[in-house]
Design a protein that fits this description.
Blueprint (H helix, E strand, L loop, with lengths): L1 H7 L1 H8 L3 E5 L2 E10 L5 E9 L2 E2 L2 E2 L6 E5 L15 E10 L2 E8 L9 H19 L26 H4 L3 H4 L6 E5 L4 H9 L6 E5 L6 H4 L8 H6 L3 H9 L6 E4 L16 E4 L5 H13 L2 E12 L2 E11 L4 H6 L13 H4 L4 H19 L10 E5 L4 E5 L3
Parallel strand pairs: 9-10, 9-12, 10-11, 12-13
Antiparallel strand pairs: 1-2, 2-3, 3-6, 4-5, 6-8, 7-8, 13-14, 14-15, 15-16
Helix pairs in contact: 1-2, 2-3, 6-13
Length: 393
Amino acid sequence: MSRALFSRNADLAKLREEGYFVQIVGGFLVMREVPYVDADRKVRKGTLISSLTLAGDQTRPPDTHVVHFDGEYPCFADGARIAAIANQTTHFDLGHGLTAEHAFSSKPDGGYRDYHHKMTTYASIIAGPAAVLDATATPRPYRALDEEDADSVFNYVETASDRVGIGALTAKLAGHRIAIIGLGGSGSYILDMVAKTPVAEIRIFDADEFLQHNAFRAHGAPSLDELREAPLKVDHFKGIYERMHRGITAVPVAIAPGNLDLLDGIDFAFLSLDAGEAKAALVERLHARGVGFIDIGMGLELGDRGLSGILRVTTSTAETRETVASHERIPLAGGGAGDIYASNIQVADLNALNAVFAVIKWKKLCGFYCDFENEHHSTYTLDGNMLLNEDQS
């Protein structure tokens, strides 16, 4: 991925051609081994880090003139600070193993044309005084680079997190192996949100075809030609989201007591399926294997004033597994074939909302979002717009 960026963008390619030690790390452009002078007039080396703005695999003009610097505060040759670039001094954890101690600000008239302009400007400001004390000090070491791309679950660089400073939080979602069981409605919205995170694998389960009524309930907008083909749901959604995320595994079967081994290797699951024998066996299996999961559901009623009802999100973790089972929070008997949710296709907004609640809770468990209540069972009542939390651990 990073090799392609350097080969397809003149500003990035020029930095390497001129001998700068530059790399793409996450959503950052990193320039290493930049010499500078510290307060004791010693020549040291630091790292310049800039956010990276891309349109696919093409760079855009930098969205900010600010850069981060990992090193002591750079000084002139006499040891006086280069005060003109001062912006912020604190410890920055940028994620991807990158840290910085300072943010610098130097904006030319008209802003920076491209990343070559930006990075060489800062390198000149910082490294210039070092060359006064040591003629061999240069920000262009012409270092031989390992051209092997770092492993990534995405097909293009994820710049959204790093440009707003939450790369370290996003990294907490990396490496997880997630199962999404059921893609009829809410499951597709869960997939949409999880696919935008750096989880290692997303294993999607559903045996049904993607038909016309699904188009009005699920995420996205299929064409008439796509509906005529009646693809399996897992194939339909994998085809969409593998454009972004590499680790999607489609499993075109309905979970049943006899095939629960298909879940082996996952460490978290989202359950979006009707009650019944299969769901009961699934929950028992996840509990026995110590796998955390979130089960969602909704119950709707049609009255004179429209639809009313409740959305539910129930979370099972090591701390609450016994509570979930003893309180019978998860409906396991019967099924949903006859209720309004199963037949009424105009509830896409509720499908999406139920999925949002579930994904937010998962991210809380991962430490991405702050969680003061630590609830493991919540309900949203539609007609009163009321959200209740229970089973705090």
